[in-house]
Amino acid sequence: MTIKQFQTKNTMLKITNLHASIEGKEILKGINLEIKAGEVHAIMGPNGSGKSTLASVIAGREYANITEGKIQYIGKDLLDMLPEERAREGIFLGFQYPIEIPGVSMVNFMKSAINEKRKHNGQEPIKAAAFLKMMREKKAFVELDSQLANRSVNEGFSGGEKKRNEIFQMAMLEPKLSILDETDSGLDIDALRIVANGVNKLKSPENATVVITHYQRLLDYIVPDVVHVLYDGKIVKTSGKELALELEEKGYDWIKNHIN
Amino acid sequence: MNKYPIVSDFANIFQNNIEKLDKSSEIISRHRKSAIDKFSDLGLPSRKNEKYKHTNLLPIFDDKHNFYFEKQKIDFQLDDIFSCDIPDIDTDTIILLNGWYYSANDEKLTTLPSGAIIGSFDEASKKFPELFEKHYSKIASYENDSLVALNTAFVQDGLFLYFPKNAVLEKPIQIINILLSEEALFVQHRNMIIAEENSHAKVVVCDHSLSPHKFLTNSVTEGFVGKNAFLDYFKIQNEHNEASQISSVFFQQEKSSTLNFNTISLHGGLIRNNINVLLNDEYCENNLYGLYLTDKTQHISNYTVIDHAKPNCVSNQVFKGVLDDFANGTFTGKVVVRKEAQKTKAFQSNKNILLTDITKIHSQPHLEIYADDVKCSHGATVGQLDENAIFYCQSRGIPKHEARLLMMFAFANEIVKKITVEPLRERIDDLVNKRLRGELSRCNNCALNCHS
Description:
The structure holds 2 protein chains of 2 kinds.
Chain A: H1 3-10, E1 11-22, E2 25-36, E3 40-44, H2 51-59, E4 65-73, E5 76-77, H3 83-88, E6 91-94, E7 101-105, H4 106-120, H5 128-141, E8 152-153, H6 159-173, E9 177-181, H7 189-202, E10 208-213, H8 218-221, E11 226-231, E12 234-239, H9 242-250, H10 252-259
Parallel strand pairs in A: 3-10, 3-11, 6-9, 9-10
Antiparallel strand pairs in A: 1-2, 1-4, 4-5, 7-8, 11-12
Chain B: H1 5-16, H2 18-21, H3 26-42, H4 58-62, H5 78-81, E1 92-97, E2 100-102, E3 109-111, E4 117-120, H6 121-127, H7 129-135, H8 146-154, E5 158-163, E6 173-179, E7 185-187, E8 190-195, E9 200-209, E10 215-225, E11 230-238, E12 243-253, E13 258-267, E14 270-279, E15 285-294, E16 299-308, E17 314-323, E18 328-337, E19 345-354, E20 360-369, E21 375-383, H9 387-394, H10 400-416, H11 422-437
Parallel strand pairs in B: 1-6, 5-8, 6-9, 7-10, 8-10, 9-11, 10-12, 11-13, 12-14, 13-15, 14-16, 15-17, 16-18, 17-19, 18-20, 19-21
Antiparallel strand pairs in B: 1-2, 3-4, 4-5
Helix pairs in contact in B: 1-3, 3-8, 6-7, 9-10, 10-11
C-alpha cells in the first residue's frame, strides 16, 4: 500500500475550496475540511457564519447552489449523489429543527429507511421480529418513550424528544458520517446528557462525527478531536479541543478581531 | 318553459315511453307526472345555481345516451363476468346491472336469516306498499331538486334493503353496481334502505363499469335509520373515466341512531355526491367521511348538508383529497344547526393535496347556526406536499417518490382506517396504494383493463 492509498483509505470526507450561495448571496466562501474515520470534529461559529448551510450541502439539500469546489466522500464525488444515495452510503444529518410528518408513523418511517439501505446493500428487507427488537434496543439507548414510536414522525414531540429521536434514528441507521446540526439547541441539561451519551456510545474507529454548535457546553460531553471555527463562510481557525474553551472564554469577537 | 334543449328531450322521452314506465307500482307511477313537470320547470342545474357553481353538469348530459325502459335479457351469468376480487370478504351480495336488479335465481326479494329483506326496489314497492309509501319521495323530496325530480320521473328499479326491528346482520350486505352495455347509456336507479329500530347492519356499495362506453348515472338513495339503529355504509366509486355519476343520498336519522357514511372515489369522469342527512331526533351520531384520489381530467364534487334539527346530536365530517394532473374538484359542506338544536356538536374538515399547479379545488365548508349553546368547528386546507418533509425522508435514505407516496398514503389513511369491514379495508388500502402509485387500481377482474 502506498502512502497515498493509505491516506485516502482513512479519509472519509474531504471538502476542497467549497463555495455555495443561496439566492445569489455567497454563504460558503471556500471551505477546506478533511475528516478521517474515528474522529470527532466540532464546527463552531457565530450565527450566520454558514454552519447549517455546510451541513445541508453535505446532506444534499438543494436550496444552496454550489458554485465552486468539490466534496469527496469515501472516494466518491458526493455532489453527484442524490440526498437519499448519500444517506444509504452512510451520511446522516441530525436536523437542527426535525420535521414533523403527519400521519406517517415512526415505525413505518424507520422501516422504509432501513429497508432502502438494505436494498442498497443487496440485502433482503428486514424481518418484522428483528426490526422490532432493533427498535426496542435503540429506543432504550436514548431513553425514548416507547409510545413515541407509534406516533407520527416528530408530531407532537417536545423539543427534547425531537432531538432524542434524531439520535435514535442515527442509532438505527448506523451511519459512517454523522453531522449533528445544533443538536444541543433547546435542550435542558438532562436531555443534553442523554443525547451526548447516545452519540458517544455510537462512536467507533470506523465512523466519524461532526458536531455543529454555537456553544461550548455540548463539547463537555462530546469531546472533539478537532475544533474548527467557521466565520463568514470560511474556516478561520482549526485546533484541538482547547480551542472551544478559549472561544467560550473570549467570545466570538475574539475571532473577529483575530482575523481582521 | 324549457331552459335547455336537453330538458325538453327528457319530457319527450318521458311521453314516448309512458306505457313502459307505467308498469311500475302505483306508488312509483303516481309521482312520475308531477316529477317530470317539476324537472321541466326547474331544468338542469347550471353553474348559475350556487350548488353547482364549480361543477358543470351540462356537458355530460350533452352526450347522446340511450335509455333502457325494460330490463335487458342477458344470456350469461353475471357471476361469469364479474366476481368481487376482495379476498376473504363474506357478504350477502346484490347485483344491479345498469340499475336493474339481477339474481341468479328468479327470486326478486330474499329474506336473510336475520330477518332482513334484500332485493329489487320495484318488487318491494309492489309487495310492501305501506312500508314503501312511508318513505318513498318523503326523505328525498323532488320539490327543489331537479335531479331527484328527474330520477323520480324515470325510476324503474334499484335496490331495496330492509332491516327489521332488532335485526343484527352478521355479514355485510354488498351491492355491486355494474354498468355494461354496447352503447352509451343513461341509468337512473333508486335505492331504499330502511333500518328499523335497534337494527345493526353494514352495507358496502361498489360501482363498476365493465364496458368502455359513456355512462351517466343519476341515482337517488333514500335511507331511514330508526331509533337506536346502527348503520355503516361504504361506497366505493371506481368506474372508468368515461363514466359519470351523480349520486344523491338522503338519510333521516331517528333518536340515538348512528350512521357512518364513507365514500371512497377512485375513478370516474365526473363524480357528484350530494349527501343529505337529517338528524330528526336527539342523541344521533353521524360520521361522514370521504376520500377522493383523482387525476387526468377527472372532476369530483362532494356536496353535503347536515341538518341538526334536534338537540344533543353529534356530527363529524372529514373529506380528504389528492388531485393530480388536470383534475379539479369541489367540496361544499353545509351544517345547519336549528334554533331548537342546543348542545349540538358539529365538526367539519376538508383537506386537499394538489400535486400540480393546474389542479384546482374549491372548498367551501360552512356552518349555519341558530342555536346558542353549541360546539362547532369547520376548516379547509389546500396545499402541496411539504418539501421539508420530503427532504427529511430523503436524508434517511428514502427516495423522493417514495417519500411523496409515504406522505400521501398517510394522508389518505385517516379515511381508509375508518372502514370497519376488515377485508374491504385491506383491499381499499391496496387500491389506494396502487392508485397513488399510478398503477391501475380498478379491480383486477375487470374485463376491460382500460387505462382511461
